[in-house]
Amino acid sequence: MIKAGIIGATGYAGAELVRLLLAHKEVEIVWYGSRSYIDQKYASVYQNMFQLVEDRCLDDNLEELAKQADVIFTATPQGYCASVMSEEILSKAKVIDLSADFRIKDVSVYEAWYGIEHKSPQYISEAVYGLCEINREKIKEARLIANPGCYPTCSFLSIYPLVKEGIIDPSTIIIDAKSGTSGAGRGAKTDNLYCEVNENIKAYGVAVHRHTPEIEEQLSYAAGEPVIINFTPHLIPMNRGILVTAYASLKKKLSTEELREMYQKAYQEEYFVRVLEEGMVPQTKWVEGSNFVDVNFKLDERTNRVIMMGAMDNLVKGAAGQAVQNMNLMFGLKEQEGLQLVPMFP
Amino acid sequence: MIKAGIIGATGYAGAELVRLLLAHKEVEIVWYGSRSYIDQKYASVYQNMFQLVEDRCLDDNLEELAKQADVIFTATPQGYCASVMSEEILSKAKVIDLSADFRIKDVSVYEAWYGIEHKSPQYISEAVYGLCEINREKIKEARLIANPGCYPTCSFLSIYPLVKEGIIDPSTIIIDAKSGTSGAGRGAKTDNLYCEVNENIKAYGVAVHRHTPEIEEQLSYAAGEPVIINFTPHLIPMNRGILVTAYASLKKKLSTEELREMYQKAYQEEYFVRVLEEGMVPQTKWVEGSNFVDVNFKLDERTNRVIMMGAMDNLVKGAAGQAVQNMNLMFGLKEQEGLQLVPMFP
Amino acid sequence: MIKAGIIGATGYAGAELVRLLLAHKEVEIVWYGSRSYIDQKYASVYQNMFQLVEDRCLDDNLEELAKQADVIFTATPQGYCASVMSEEILSKAKVIDLSADFRIKDVSVYEAWYGIEHKSPQYISEAVYGLCEINREKIKEARLIANPGCYPTCSFLSIYPLVKEGIIDPSTIIIDAKSGTSGAGRGAKTDNLYCEVNENIKAYGVAVHRHTPEIEEQLSYAAGEPVIINFTPHLIPMNRGILVTAYASLKKKLSTEELREMYQKAYQEEYFVRVLEEGMVPQTKWVEGSNFVDVNFKLDERTNRVIMMGAMDNLVKGAAGQAVQNMNLMFGLKEQEGLQLVPMFP
Amino acid sequence: MIKAGIIGATGYAGAELVRLLLAHKEVEIVWYGSRSYIDQKYASVYQNMFQLVEDRCLDDNLEELAKQADVIFTATPQGYCASVMSEEILSKAKVIDLSADFRIKDVSVYEAWYGIEHKSPQYISEAVYGLCEINREKIKEARLIANPGCYPTCSFLSIYPLVKEGIIDPSTIIIDAKSGTSGAGRGAKTDNLYCEVNENIKAYGVAVHRHTPEIEEQLSYAAGEPVIINFTPHLIPMNRGILVTAYASLKKKLSTEELREMYQKAYQEEYFVRVLEEGMVPQTKWVEGSNFVDVNFKLDERTNRVIMMGAMDNLVKGAAGQAVQNMNLMFGLKEQEGLQLVPMFP
Questions:
Q1: What is the interface pTM, i.e. ipTM, of the complex?
Q2: Cβ contacts (< 8 Å) between C192 and chain A: which residues?
Q3: Mean pLDDT of A123-127
């Protein structure tokens, strides 16, 4: 059994990790970290775990946790993981960081967009960006995983095949994304109250959202050239789910069939990325609770643009599920272990 | 592998059966019955099953199905199962009927409340009411299971311990129930449109809802005397979940501790019924996607009444999950097999 | 023009007062009180008021406000209004208190249920309980109105006709109420976050909710004898609306027609109470945004109980609308002035 | 009093017309047309109108209606209005058509996108596109108004100022729109059931939505050159509201201040278009129930694009409210008459 510890276990992503790991037959959770609920029963914070989890929450202590665990998940605010990382920790346990601390290779870009100093830049180059479909082999060897952001995962996987093939003009990429409210976390803020979110929709972080450089960096690798995009997230009155609608101009005329082949080629071996049949649009409800990303596209010959779409559960493939997928790869388990979840509908 | 067939696989309860059975390691689905979608790919009706189910929908043919399957689930409108039941079918396959056809022992009561003639009353006495926590041993031997209704399951389990102990006056029982909209089915009716249900709440079937005699019959067995109740269901703007709030007068003064002991005694061996800690109220979200029923109560000394509460996922413990639980018992499997689902939150 | 001031203008009830008073042709708002947003533009807190309200929020200063305003609305936490009330204030302006401070005549009951000391009990007897349909004449003469609570308004009006006629046994009254989330206020609490409320339902304050004694007191007046009830509120995933489902036993056999006549008799002159046609159930969506209360009942001959139902917008008839109705009466205006709002559907 | 008739009074747009016209002091509704509910009480179809509307629904008979009414609103399926239009009708009553029949000047474009033959193309050139902010003077003289579509109204008003000024490249315009479910109408379709829409988001009509040529035509007038765009609508789990997020490249470097001046210039005299303060994003909840369109923009210097946003209530400014605004202009009333509705929040 792999011994797993979670720092930040009482946030929504942390709680989703608990849900997935409890059902994972190769894993035992040994540490429920939560600075806000120290010594309280975990199941009193998440009553869905009543009689399933008897443990109490522990204060954050990564050094002690590294001694007890084989793998540490940090589902913590930006800056925390970087502030406590050390060679000693990495020598004892594998670390999968769900925050953004190690996702961006250029530390100055990180510091500019996140507005905080990076406390352990020496580990950035070692960290592997944990997008399993792209970096599978590197992940297997890694000690430190930068688990991708929710928007970047869905955005990147939706448009990757066409960027990779070099048939869209990267300078024309516009990503309009929509997310359920669990992405905003469990902090008690007026803006996230039921009555403020329900029956409402708005854009936020327009032109300045922190996931922008993360998406750009990954697209740049795929394109083989620097990519600058527009990324606009929106808050949607639903608990879970991200939908991405992305736009780009084709460099030359291509048929729907040719585009489809590029998607098939990119994902034919991928269990978690489902290329939908022609005419079907991705819907967040069809992937809810699962690790799937549903993608599809529509060619608009009038404008010579392609509209690329992707749907995903932000807490699963966008956070905890992808973290488990990374863990499976790192520990030589079957990649789908504990993740063959049938989406729940309705 | 147990071969399972589903009649009515494209209703919400049928689709939930598919979700659960796909994850059940001892079962293989051999028949996706749907009169409305004959020959269409099942995954085109429920796109969440894309790449998970390749089968096409088949017309209803219980006789043929009985030859191919070990167990048949009928998630069909009232009257259907009774209209096709036969000795030949029962001799070849076990049948778990999710409709109300075999739940009520007195056929005249069934016919009065449902307004239809019962086409095979000869099987009513044989059928076992599939409330596993109550009729476990009989279920193991049964050929034909009347899978309980959603409201009756939640209502009964919420108040059973105190009725069984004879300490509440059965004539004072009032059940006020609230259900998510999946309970209304997938039929295209104006009343169930998003805009009609959202931001709205109403009672329906007041004093005439068909689940009333089912609840009364089961409570009568527990009480050892005829029980007549008030039952009022309400439609709630959410997909899943039933909450029951039940009221009854105590026959004599009892303490919270004494009442708690009765609940503990009734359910201490039951995995799927969770008696919450004092002061915690059942919430539907805490059991969503799982087979759990969370119950608790509050003693009101001012009125000498006890308020009994229960929460459950109407599609799982209230339909498909309980059907699988019955199947597990009928086939000698572990009762929790395929049902150790961690509730999904949020 | 009547000059109105609002203390607590940035809570949901306060904001609804602003919405209603802006459309009231006899009123001018002269004071937007909000301790939390002093000096901020009101429209920056409630962006719906952009270009409609140019004022900034003011600190609480009831004495100063009394000099400037003809009527003061206090939409404030329990205890505030009592703590600042004075003869000087009442001599200068009429006060309509939306908190519970002056609703309960027996100060010991108030202090027991609210857990705070009442700071100005000397004004309790003078205060008129502002349920316009019941106390219309007294309200016209009042200086200080105790604006009724949301649950009490809907509960009382739903069952009043039958209590008044003495044909139900008051000791059997059980009120099961359901409220949208705006009733919980705009405070930033985890329990009221979108993801905690959405797709969820729960009871709260079971047997101890503070509106219980308020309902009991008013029912006692109507019954002419002390009434003790069970009252259970539930939190519903919707913004607005209260639905009450109440149960009581009839003292003798009565027909639906006889019961209907009692409802008609009680409300035939009332514009804001709509007795629905037989067979129609009250639905919160049908009164949203308006000052209507829709009521109806169902006789259950099997149990000799009557199920009484009422639906209302908790922010309008349950708070701000009723406050304006009181103001209209106090200032000799037409009672419906500014309140002839057509419910918004969907 | 203006006598108004509504054809299609039992659709959501028709019902919203009823809501607005009941509160309009210069109008009397003389005809509630509904082919589906002939002879039924209107208030039995829309119970919010109980005791407010006593009329029964009438069959469609435009010729008879034209004799009785001063103005006719047709809130009917595409093709209906064109199929019954005649000189006789127009000579007797003004017609405001909420369908698309007279919005597009080029009949071949209409027929291509709508897939039906236009039955009275002779009236297309006479019809005035009823976007009041743009065509105010023409509307005053018109007999026949083509009331704009919901998406076109919000899309056009969000980007009009910059197109008009010629500072964005029209070929780069991409409009990503999100709509509440009332836009899908009250027809009983599985896709619009509560459980299918709730907790879900999807794009639809990708690259083929019928509102595309309508937006393009109006933008072309503003730009003075043909404009081809991408338009992608999404279905959102909320009742009301449209949010538009539009993208375009600037032809040259401009500052936020310069762009802001263009918005101010375009809308400084417009009551119903609110240009929000810098940094504020339009939110649908802030305009709900009102005739406002809130617009704003964000300059992204990294990509040299401007992101333009607009929020509106699809049933008010996107349908019934704009129709009333047109009526006010046509009859020489104050443009805001009956439309000074304070948005309802929450």
A1: 0.97
A2: 193-195
A3: 98
